[in-house]
Task: inverse folding
């Protein structure tokens, strides 16, 4: 089994760990809805790169008010 010859100093240990921190995701604004979304993902309304990919259901509140009228 490999055994280190010298103790790793706090400075060297912390420099090595400098890149291990979890960063925030890169978000961009959806051009159709204006909501934030992850890059290279489908937007909340089901569109991707300007094309409608998924059919989305209308929110419950909108369907209930439309049915009541």
Result:
């Amino acid at each position: 089994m490999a055994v280190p010859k010298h103790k790793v100093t706090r400075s060297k240990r912390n420099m090595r760990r400098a890149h291990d921190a979890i960063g925030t995701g890169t978000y961009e604004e959806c051009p159709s809805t204006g909501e934030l979304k992850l890059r290279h993902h489908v937007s909340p309304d089901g569109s991707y790169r300007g094309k409608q990919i998924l059919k989305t259901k209308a929110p419950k509140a909108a369907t209930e008010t439309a049915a009541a009228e």
Q: What stands out?
A: Residues 60-68 form the longest helix (9 residues). The chain is about 25% helix and 15% strand.
